[in-house]
Amino acid sequence: MRVTLVALVVVASLGTSSPVVLGVKHRLLYGVGWGTAHPRRIFNGGDPSGEAFDLAWKRWGGSTTVADGLTWVFTPSGGYYRKPLPIELRAFRIGRCAGGGPPAYTRLDARVVVKPGGTFGHWFPWGPTGGDICKHLD
Question: Strand ranges (DSSP E) for the chain?
Answer without folding.
Answer: 21-22, 42-43, 51-58, 64-71, 85-95, 104-112, 124-125
